[in-house]
Specification:
Elements (H helix, E strand, L loop, with lengths): L6 H18 L4 E8 L12 E8 L5 E5 H7 L9 H20 L5 E4 L9 H10 L12 E3 H9 L11 H8 L10 H9 L3 H23 L9 H4 L4 H9 L2 H26 L1 H13 L2
Parallel strand pairs: 1-4, 4-5
Antiparallel strand pairs: 1-2, 2-3
Helix pairs in contact: 1-5, 6-8, 11-12
Length: 288
């Protein structure tokens, strides 16, 4: 039961509870991130995927699926793949990923903005369908979008978008290394240049960054862009709503107001005089 109540505190409570679900059984939580072709410059075509990295929240063991690894297994030069070779390797990589998800039916998946058909679980499945591979099925109930949870806990002003995007900006604010992590624009350039190893290393770094952010949330050490008063809704409008939606606090303020008024009445009588005070009271009474 919450002592205080307001929309901001209720939203924060939702985020805290979602993180508590993850911390309850870390061994069954995966952090996932992936890199792909730019979905802005591909003229509406579903982006090709270059690398998927998955890290266990408790053990930190990381599983990777990437084009450059598939190419090496196939004995191909990953810096000079034809489109046909890329599609074949990508299909094998994504089938391996699908198989991995089926082995973990009750695991929770922590991700960063993987929520739509441009970039997300749906986008991966769409690419698998195009390649006629084996799609996977992860229930939405097992997907935890960390930026949404951060917004619930710290408000959605928790970090700025510029210059490097919220993930890398938040990492730098908390002294988490971003070395080898590419920005969105840098990833698009790396894909165009067929720098698949560079993309894979960036994806690995980003799952490490997400893990470090989660660790700081758990220890209540995460530094954010939002002032504490906004996090707890303690601005003037927020305090007004807090009092309005917390009955015992509203009652307490009423009682305090009554006693303060009673205590100040002799002072007011001394300052303005009893007769003047009576005149003021009669005037107020007649004006009703």
């Amino acid at each position: 039961m919450n002592i205080f109540n307001s929309p901001r505190l209720r939203e924060r409570k939702q985020g805290v509870e979602l993180m508590a679900e993850l911390f309850k059984d870390k061994a069954k939580c995966y952090i996932i991130h992936y890199s792909c072709e730019s979905f802005i410059t591909n003229h509406g075509r579903t982006p090709r995927i270059t690398s998927i990295c998955i890290r266990n929240l408790r053990t930190a063991q990381t599983k990777s699926f990437s084009i450059h690894l598939q190419a090496q297994v196939a004995g191909l030069d990953f810096n000079n793949l034809t489109i046909e070779q890329y599609d074949t390797l990508e299909k094998e990589m994504l089938n391996d990923f699908s198989s991995f998800t089926r082995q973990s039916p009750s695991h929770k998946w922590i991700h960063w903005n993987m929520r739509d058909s441009n970039y997300g679980f749906e986008a991966i499945n769409n690419r698998i369908k195009i390649l006629q591979g084996q799609i996977f099925d992860i229930s939405d109930d097992f997907k935890y979008d960390l930026p949404i949870i951060l917004g619930q806990i710290y408000t959605f002003g928790y970090e700025k978008n510029k210059p490097k995007g919220r993930l890398l900006n938040l990492a730098e604010r908390n002294n988490i290394t971003t070395q080898t992590a590419l920005t969105g624009g840098e990833e698009a350039t790396a894909f165009d240049n067929k720098e698949y190893l560079k993309l894979h290393v960036s994806t690995l770094r980003k799952v490490d960054i997400i893990a470090s952010i989660i660790h700081r949330i758990e220890n209540e050490e995460l530094k954010v862009n939002t002032p504490r008063k906004h996090i707890y809704g303690l601005t003037m409008p927020g305090i007004f709503i807090l009092v309005k939606e917390t009955p015992w606090l509203l009652f307490l303020i009423g009682i305090l107001g009554y006693f303060i008024g009673s205590a100040l009445e002799p002072v007011v009588q001394h300052v303005v005089g009893t007769d003047d005070l009576q005149t003021i009271q009669d005037t107020l009474k007649n004006s009703r």
